[in-house]
Automatic annotation (TrEMBL):
Protein name: TniQ protein
Organism: Methylobacterium isbiliense
Amino acid sequence: MLEEDLRAPADRQARWNIHRRFWWDVQAISTCPFHKVQLLKSCPACDPELERPVGWHHGSLTRCTRGHSLLRCESQAVTEDDAAADLYIVGRLTGARQIGSDFLDALPLDLALSVIKRFGIAAVHGPYAKIRGSGLDRNLHVMSAGFRVASEWPTNYVGLLDALASSAPGWGAKVVYGRLYRWAKSIPSGSRIENIKSILFDHCARRAYLHESSYIRRSHSSKFVGIRSLAAQLDRHPKVIAKCLEELGAKSSGPGRGNPESISAKNAKQVEIIVSRRLKRSDLNVLLGTSSRNTQMLISKGLITPGIVDPLLSRKIDDFDKLAVEQFLQKLRGSAPLVKEAGQDVFSMADIAKRLRMGSIAEVCDFMVRADLTASAVLENCKGIPSLLFDARSVEEAKVRIFNSLNSRQAARELGISLASLSIAINNDVLTRTLNQYGESRIPLSEVVRFWQIYTTPSILAKEYGTSARVVQRVMRKCDVAPILSSTHNWVFILYRLADVPRDFAREVAMTRARVYRRAA
């Protein structure tokens, strides 16, 4: 830092401008804010056990008391942000201010330094770090952090309190704010820094519960409301109120017996707003138009999510978001028109559950959401789920898409055989059926494709070659091709392998038809 002082002009001797800055010995200053370097407190060449402070009264400005030169000491650069606090202090001492703070400028310098130190230690080392005897108050990072908190008042101070509250291991002013709370508590009324205490108390009352015997509650001007009394007023369980307060950022050990917690009236108003957007179980049943059993099944399926489920209680404390439930119903309703009565082609969810073998109403709702199906119509005189009407054909098509399989009628139509023939094929292991999650027997689409690739019937061959099924059977007998499946019990069903069909099958068909015509003639 003496580099500029050691430069001698042509008409002067070396070291002509060496002089002591009085603020070097100020304990709170640890940097030179003009040169952006850290001040040297002791000689680096001396034995650490014998080191003595460097200053006006100890040796000189160029040598230490043991004769070591200080001119070749390497300086440690600091950032402008780290030197901001020292620049402010030097400005207050010299009157040449280059940086200011409206909050600190209104305080005496010693009180401003105390505020900077306490803010800085809380910001850098947490709320439990000690000030006296720790040396933390002389750390340049602590001073610069404290000055940043106090410079933009009170925004940065509230930000510091938010950071302490978010990282606190528990609740209560002593736990959250630590020594900062103890210091704010000791600030007398009418003090110039009384707003430090009032902002901290407001912050605690807004973000945390307060015990009835809390000092903040007794000294705060705001009104407070007990959690249990608020729960009784809103006809909710105290756990629901606690959940709402958690959404506001409050922390607590829980509103149990023997723990008479309370919250500010401002928080109570916000809780009332949150509760107005929530539903109890009985209100949920009315909104959905379902019984308690069906409502519970919807919850079990995850279609309706409860806000609170307390495993420690003998019963569930269910709290539901009204907006989320309405959005769920709107997703099922879509843009369906209102009708006075159900038509022939549309059915309610209860009817669909029975007719299409889809289990309960909850399983139908789950399928509708998965298949992205919306109602075809809505009954005017009903509310909730019972008012929704769906097209059965659309549901069946969605089942084909979701389960990748066909029901018996669809499979028989796709294969070009009767239901009785389909049953014979399944019983003889020609086709494999599966059960879906509702217990419904279905034919996978892969089985239908495999059937076409391997098997054929006289009816199919007759359509392909333009003849009758009887002619096809005669040709197969003439070519010594035996069917792999032939059933005449209650229903005739004959099945051949495609690989067994003769290559000259078309010629044989033509010859057989000609022979039949000649006989007829």
